[in-house]
Amino acid sequence: MAQLVEKQEPLSFRFADDGLVPNHPRWPMLVYPGAVPLPDDVDPAAVLEDIFSANGWGDSWRDGIYGFVHYHSRIHEVLGIARGSAEVRFGGGKGKVLEVKAGDVVVLPAGTGHQRLSASADLLVVGAYPPFGTYDLCRSPEQHAEALRTIPEVRRPDKDPIYGSDGPLLAAWSKLAA
Q1: How far apart are CA 39 and CA 48, in angstroms?
Q2: Angle 99-104-107 (CA atoms, 0-180°, nearest 5)?
Q3: How far out from the chain centre does Cα 14 lie?
Q4: 94-125, pLDDT tens digit by residue?
Q5: Bridge partners of 100?
Q6: Average pLDDT score over residue span 54-77
Q7: Coiled-coil annotation: which residues (predicted)?
């Protein structure tokens, strides 16, 4: 499946803490538009699952994106769009709205807010996580103070979820990237 991946530099987005969504204090959200061409003759979700798994990102799921603002304070997340399209606000209320479509991959450092605003009827997303961290779902103001403490403690993954050991994530999320 790795042969399907088209090597590219990701788009990079940084978001400030908006009082509800902390976002990550150092590392940007990375977007790889059209990074994974999805052939018609295979299960597109399986292609994404295989690529993420081969690069050490597991505990994958297939679903959509919640329609409420939320973030994860104890783990990073990758979202691969297997089918359809969606408008998603990243970074919380003062963040950025992007359209994501089949073949796009978005890597969210811990703390990055995300919310589906609209979606095609056939939207299918594959999510996965690095091999460390603890899944949580944060969406209330009461969780903000604790999230500010836990987000910086989530270490950088050893591999980019689609490009592995030499992927752009490693430089973008280095200790020097601030």
Answers
A1: 12
A2: 95
A3: 13
A4: 999 999 999 999 999 999 999 999 999 999 99
A5: 86
A6: 97
A7: none
CATH superfamily entry for domain 2-171: Jelly Rolls (2.60.120.10)
d(CA 152, CA 169): 16
Number of other residues whose CB lies within 10 A of the CB of residue 130 = 22
For the whole prediction, is pTM greater than 0.90?
Answer: yes
- Distance between the two ends of the chain, CA-based, in angstroms? 33
Residue 37 is encoded by which pair of tokens?
A: 């061409």
The predicted pLDDT at position 90 comes to: 98
Q: Tokens 């991959």 correspond to what residue?
A: 105
CB 123 within 8 A of CB 43: no
Closest among 36, 115, 112 to 80, alpha carbons compared: 36
**C-alpha pair distances (Å), 145 with each of 25, 35, 73, 149, 165:** 14, 35, 11, 7, 33
Q: Which two tokens stand for residue 164?
A: 């592995």
